[in-house]
Amino acid sequence: MSRLLTDLPQPAAIEALTEESVVVQPIGALEQHGSHLPLSTDLVIPEEIGTRAVDRAVENGVDAWLLPSIAASKSDEHHWAPGTIWMEASTIWNTLVDVGRSVAETPARTLVFLNGHGGNSALLQVVNREIRRRYGLRTFSLGSGTQRAGGSAEGGPDEFGMGIHAGHSETSVMLALRPELVDMSRAVRSVPEHIAGFSTIGFNGAPVSFGWTSDDFGPSGVIGDPTQATAEYGRALVEEGTEFVATALAEISRFRHAA
Ligand SMILES: [Zn+2]
Prior knowledge:
Layout: H1 10-16, E1 22-27, H2 41-59, E2 64-66, H3 89-104, E3 110-115, H4 121-135, E4 138-143, H5 168-177, H6 231-254
Parallel strand pairs: 1-2, 1-3, 3-4
Helix pairs in contact: 2-5, 2-6, 3-4, 5-6
This protein binds zinc ion (ZN).
């Protein structure tokens, strides 16, 4: 049975949802991913992982439901590359708050944003609180669990912990999910290795963050090393991501703010 909530007629959808239901909203992005991956990369991945993870969570007894993906989001770091369809922060903010308001009018009390694009992460943390305050939903955000930063200890090419865009892990995942859309003959390595020399400044997780657009690091649009990507590694990441999201959905379904 489909777990896509919008496959149901409205009365059946409202009957199916309860206070225990977990509604999952995948958020994609339509943005340049170098010359070897499709613009839709960050849409394909959360949609595929979301579908698999919701099915697995349901098998494990979680009343999880999927919404159709939001295709475009806050990809302003790729604004320089025509073909990128990007929203202002205020546009995606309003869109997500509107989703929260709409879900709050159903019996469901839990909304999960499954985010396919790192550029949305900071905004999602703020949106989670806004929807919580305005509409009382339990709100959560997470990624699809398939991205790896690519350090020297991880076995793949060394991306100096900066394999964040169209690099080894993401290209491998696309070789697993949509091989017909990947052109490995166009894959190039582009890693801003000098940034690894800073101890406080860096990408996600570093204590000092910095503003950037993806053309700051070179003309390819890639931040990472896709040249050794394989479908086999991609399939392992898809399984890890599916299991991570399914496990998270199970925890989310029993999370309550007060003991
Ligand atoms: Zn991506």
